Structures are given as C-alpha cells and as structure tokens.
Fold this sequence. Notes:
The chain has helices at residues 3-12, 44-55, 67-70, 93-98, 141-150, 152-156, 162-174, 177-187, 194-205, 214-219, 228-239, 299-307, 327-336, and strands spanning 131-132, 138-139, 256-257, 276-277. With 359 residues, it is mostly helical. It folds into 2 domains: 3-30 and 210-336, Cytochrome c-like domain (Cytochrome Bc1 Complex, Chain D, domain 2), CATH 1.10.760.10; 44-205, Cytochrome Bc1 Complex, Chain D, domain 2 (Orthogonal Bundle), CATH 1.10.760.10.
Amino acid sequence: MNYHRLLCLALLVGGGCSLKPPHSETLSSLPRSVPAPADNPTKPEAVELGRALFWDPILSGDRDVACATCHHPDFGYSDGLAVSVGVGGRGVGSARAAGPGARVGRNSMSVLGTAFNGLSVDGAVPPEAAPMFWDHRTASLEAQALGPIKNELEMRGSAFSEDEILDELVARLTSIPEYVAKFEAAFGAEGVSATTLAKAIAAFERTLVPTPTSFDRYMAGDDGAMTASQIRGMHGFIGQGCARCHSGPMLSDFKLHRLPVAPSGAPDLGDGMGQFRTPSLRMITLTAPYMHNGTVTTLDESIDFYHNLEVTSPLLEGDVEPPLGGGDDLRAFYEAISDGTFDRTIPERVPSGLPPGGT
C-alpha cells in the first residue's frame, strides 16, 4: 500500500489531515517469515526447551527470578512496572513493585517482536547483528539472553560472580535428566552449555511475534481492517512527525536519541551520551508504563509529553514536531497496532520443579 492511497482514504473518511511529504517515515506491515541465524534455526525442540528455560527460575543465582518474571504475557511480555524488580522480589506486576527486591533502574522492554529488532525503513539487519536493550549494548537475541542472567540485580544475585554464574547454571541443568534430554533433542552433541542455553531462549523468543494486527491487515490491502478513526489517527501520526522515529514495520527506527524525559533516581546516561533507543510501538496498549525509566505512565501522558515538547530544546534531536491534537484518533491507531494475538502460555511446571516464573 503506498502513501498516496493512504492519503486518499484519510480524506474519504473525513480525516482532514494536513500531511507532509513521506520522506522516510513510511509505515509497513511485518514480514510473514521470522529470521534466525544459520547456527540457530528455529526448531520445535529448541523452542520447547527455550520456553522451559524462559519460565524456570533455576537460571537465577538464588533460584527466585526467571526471564518471565520481567517479561510476562499478562503485561505484553514486559512487567507493568516503571522499573523492574529483580532478585529478592515477590509476585508480578504491582504486587512485585510493592514488595522487597532489587530495582534494576530501567523499564522492562517487551520481548514481543524482538525477532525483528533492527528491521527499519532501511531494511533488515542479520539476526546476529540485531540491536538489543535500551542502549544497544548487545547484538542478537542469543547475546541478549545471557545479559540479565549475568546481571547482579536482575537475576544473578550476590552468591555468584559474573564469571561464575554460567558455569553454575550449566552444572545445575546437567544435574536434571529432563533438561539433559531436552538439550540433546534440540542441539545433539552440543549438549548443555552456556551457548546452547542462550540459543534455546532466543529460539523461543523468536516465536513471540503477534499475529497480524488490524494495522497489518490494512497495510496488506484489507480496507475494512481499520476503522475511520484509526485511519485518521495513522495519518495524524505520520503527518505530525511521529513516524520520523517510529517508522517501518516495527514502528521504530532502531536509532539512539535524546529526549527530555523526566529523571527517576540516579542519572542514567543510556549509551553514555544520554541516548536511548526508539522503542517499538507494537502492542503499546499492553506495555505501559513508557520511556526507559517508566516515568510516563499512560498513553494519554505519552501524547501530552510529545504535545508539550519544545522543538528548540537542546536536548531534543532531530526534526520532531509536537502532535497537534486528535488524541482520540491517535489512541484508536494505537489500538490498531496492538490487537494482534500472541502466545500467552504459562507452563504448569518446569523441569527444575521450581515455581514457573519465579517467586
């Protein structure tokens, strides 16, 4: 679907949008096929193993935190908190926020769609080069999978050093016959190792891609997939400059930017220069709060934040213009990019016998 078709449809439904030339801020639907690196094809055995590991708190130093603790399907595979609570925490969501535990300092990014990280209007990047985390400090889902495991506040705790934790986890997994069998089924002679542990989690995460949203179906040619309000919201989104950064199939340029986000706690310099990645807006209605530190709590606050930006601010990079209104339509567009279905399975058990998802 091209830009001129979108413009005509917007005018037909009474959008009245004053649209700018498209430049590079075009939007598009997600590809149907999910990329995977050559050395880690997405095999069912690896996905099954990865799901078990994702939910098993055996991967944390104190056996109390799982990947799923901060990436839970009830919150769109984020955690519903401003900043995540790692080791020592209890429960999920607001219950976890109210209790003890280490605050990790940043908002938990959803892992939905991370298989497409780096996919922008400029094209795709190889899976092994896909940028990860708010500051792009790691590339590939395989490398990302080990990051929280080695982080003291997130999963490792203080009982093991960063140099010790992976050997400890390999020993734990090797002592559980069910895991040994699953690793052999997935990776053959490679068996249990830190490398195959990361590969399994990454293989599972590559299956966490929402099925086509109303927006995807509309962009694929189904004119009835989006409502008139959603179409107007999409055109407001494009015409007011939002798509300069939130562009392409993932509604992200996957670049680092500086914005005058309200601080919370100690200063966070992101990549070292105060820059953070443009987050994907896919499934945005499920993943509040927003920004790298969770200081924007609702979509309405997010709209107000951009509405009130001073374009001349020295903290603001790029040619961004504040939205000029149409909040109801913009919220409707957000619904259209958030109504896809995805795997919400919570396993009843994991091979370690520990509570799935942690304490």
